[in-house]
Specification:
Number of domains: 2
CATH superfamily of the largest domain: Medium-chain alcohol dehydrogenases, catalytic domain
Oligomer: single chain
CATH class of the largest domain: Alpha Beta
Largest sheet: 7 strands, mixed
Low-confidence stretches: none
Helix content: 10-25%
CATH architecture of the largest domain: Alpha-Beta Complex
Strand content: 25-35%
């Protein structure tokens, strides 16, 4: 093995064209790390925000990193070296992970590369029933849906609220997923079904066949009807879209129900929610190899399926980011490294 690899690096913030496919130093691992040969990496919204320098944030919150950066948190690949303290993995293992998130939120986690250094605690064996492309598409979206709906599994302070997020029992409940065709949304639909919920999937009409295939009980095309006027007596709304007017769902939710916000910025309905006795909650997804291991069987046996929007060679990451910026994504966009 040489001491260099190919990677997609960022030398300045900007649009998709600032992503440069070039030579970069091979990562060095510590005693608690694993070095992985990346076969595929997927694109997530934080990749786009960091590439752009988080311009939507106030200036004092924007990053001032040391360039060059390598973006990317999610990957699937094969272990090529292990640190001396690592006992759960061996060279040759097929693995997948979300790397050091949110710790590297402002600096990148280096998955857009031929090799990536990963803390062993972030890592899990890849489900044997799916390929590297599908496995690379899972981690951030799956962990987000899992930590919202199944198990938070950490006690780190919540950056968005004073109390910890708590998933609610879903067996026999009615759950509405807004943004059900996207990366988090389509996995949330499946996890809610797995837990015994009746699921209302809200997305544009292009996603109807997919969401019916993923066993959503009711599909609402938001371009034809406002979901909050169609759906009533909801136990839980998971809003995976965010943006303006998230509080519009509150009248559709039962007393003592819940509204979970994947992106809570801009929500202004806390007083109304309190009057209606509705819990509004959110959380920051965190890397967790144990949870990816727990979900492995669901991916293996097809209970949960990862949908791929499109794939691009690692060398064409700029084009993949342009696709990601177009919107109307169905599932995940994946970069193929090997």
């Amino acid at each position: 093995m040489t001491d260099m690899m190919k990677a997609v690096r960022l030398h300045t913030f900007g649009g998709p064209d600032v992503l440069v496919y070039e030579d970069a130093p091979l990562p060095e691992i510590s005693a608690d790390d694993v070095l992985v040969r990346v076969h595929a990496a997927s694109i997530n919204p934080p990749d786009l925000y960091l590439r752009d320098g988080y311009r939507a944030l106030p200036p004092e919150w924007q990053p001032s990193p040391n360039f060059p950066l390598i973006l990317g948190t999610d990957f699937s690949g094969v272990v090529t070296a292990i640190g001396e303290n690592v006992s759960r993995f061996m060279v040759g293992d097929e693995v997948y992970a979300m790397v050091r998130f949110p710790h590297n939120l402002m600096t990148g986690s280096n998955a857009y590369a031929e090799y990536v250094r990963v803390p062993a605690s972030d890592l899990a064996l890849k489900p044997a029933g799916i390929d590297h492309i599908q496995a690379s598409a899972a981690p951030m979206s799956l962990l987000t849906a899992w930590q919202f709906l199944v198990d938070l599994a950490h006690d780190a302070p919540n950056p968005f609220q004073a109390f910890p997020h708590e998933p609610v029992p879903l067996d026999g409940k009615t759950v509405l997923v807004n943004g059900a065709g996207g990366g988090v949304g389509h996995l949330a639909v499946q996890l809610a079904k797995w837990q015994g919920a009746k699921v209302i999937a809200v997305a544009s009409g292009k996603h109807e066949a997919l969401l019916n295939d993923l066993r959503a009980d009711i599909f609402v095309d938001y371009t034809k009807a406002a979901a909050e006027t169609v759906a009533t007596d909801i136990d839980l709304v998971l809003d995976a879209v965010g943006g303006v007017n998230m509080e519009r769902f509150l009248p559709s939710i039962k007393q003592d129900g819940a509204l979970f916000l994947v992106n809570p910025l801009g929500f202004s309905g806390y007083e109304e929610a309190a009057r209606r006795r509705i819990t509004v909650s959110t959380t920051q997804v965190r890397s967790n190899g144990a949870q990816l291991s727990a979900a492995k069987g669901l991916l293996d046996n097809g209970t949960v399926r990862v949908v791929i929007d499109s794939t691009y060679p690692l060398a064409e990451t700029s084009a993949a980011h342009r696709r990601a910026s177009e919107g109307s994504i169905q599932g995940k966009i994946v970069l193929v490294a090997a």
